[in-house]
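Table 4 source record.
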Amino acid sequence: MAKPSQDMVDAQQQAQSLHWLKKITHSRKQQLSWIMILLASPIIVVLTMLPPLDYLPPLKKDSIDSFIRFPASAHLDLIEQEIVMPMANRLEPYLSGNAEPKVKNYYIAVSPGIMSMGTRAQDQTQINELKALISNEVMKGFPDTKAFTTQGSITGKFGGNRSFTFHIQSEHIEHSAAGISKVKAMLEEAMPGAVIRTSPSLSAFKPELTIQVNNERLSELGWQYAEFQSVVQMLGDGYYIGEHFDGQTRINKILKTSGTDSPSKLAQTPLLGYGGTQHYFSDIAQIEESSSLLKLQRVDRRRAVSLTVIPPDELTLGEAVTQVEQLRMRMLAELPSDSAILMGQTANKLHQSVNNLLLLMLLAIVLLFMIVAVILRSIKASLMVTLTLPLGAIGGVLLLNVLNLFTKQTLDLLTIIGFIILGGLVVNNAILLLCAYRDHVVDEGMQVKDAVYQAIAQRKRPILISTLTSIFGMLPLLLNPGVGSEIYRGLSAVVVGGMSFSLLFSFILIPCLLLLFKPYAGAKRSASAEVAQYA
């Protein structure tokens, strides 16, 4: 028996591959069903399976950043003896290599009210063990201090550290210390493991005495307001009465009392008025106790305390912002009545950036529609090309969810850019099929059904080759687990998943659309057009 030729083998394979397609797209009912399923599926998948929103990929540094806040009254000698030296002693075994994880180097910097420390591990694979060591051993046990540790991001200034800030505004912010503490505890309960910092620090709230002078009583006693003001200064920090100069050195002369231990003792301080009559401080002024901030901060011209939240690793920036928004009313209930909560720039920029990218995506789709309409000379054909875009979105979202089974992958801004890139790649398959279909119908006068299947038979191999080159070109970026892979992993997953899914279902959606709407049916290319193509 003669061996069949290669052309005969190709013809048989072509017939077999088209048999199943003809079978599932034969009737009008089948065509409508496939179109509805393939166009409705992206909406369902995106709404139900889209990963949580984030700002930028968390590209971590190879070091651990630690901070300790201590009372503003703590002086440098005390900090060095009671905090810095014990921390250095605790790190010594790990620095010398006698204990694991081995510390490569570290630094400690102290400034008023806060101390910062950076630590680097000898083996970068032990960075999590180093973070636990710093948190649970090195920085533990110091009284009247608040410590927190984090692995910073090299894109921290651009939102890569996944932190956001919101501001508590109030004209009576000095009365909000207890309420802000409750708000902070509320956030820590809602987001276990989150790092929450306040600026100014809650420890910066200091006791303050407000003295309300009774002017009528002051006049009855024959006192001048300036005189009473001098008395208050003497009872406090002291009243400047001049300077002493011995010919070489000038020394300020301050008149000051021995001080009082409490507001009640200050109120009972005896004062000698004109005529030798004795009075008490409380006879002239009323003393009110309150608290005040050592640092004054205003946001939008209102006094404010800022809370910076670094969510735990398992919580995305978008989810953390949403939780703060959900707790807004509960937080306001713990604060003075005139308080307001204002979200900071990072939280606002997250939604603004996403909206800008979605607008760019919409603009890209409109431009694509217009360009394809001009090239194919058919609005109907251009609409068919545009309808293939959602198929890529299904594959991108599905592969992101599969990726989340193995490693944390959010919908960050770079991943969204991957969807924009995917749109430009997915339409190529549809354009190839439509061009071949148009040539068969317009040039050869072929029947619509025959032209559809003939176009698929001719363009199947080029589509398969171009799609596979795109997929395998992106696979190394998707599968590489190395340092920095967080940047491009989501983008590559979107392209690989979208191109794979589009390859499978473009051969079903495009034939159904062509068979149902029949673009170019009955059209004939004019003689002038045939001459123009060779000009």
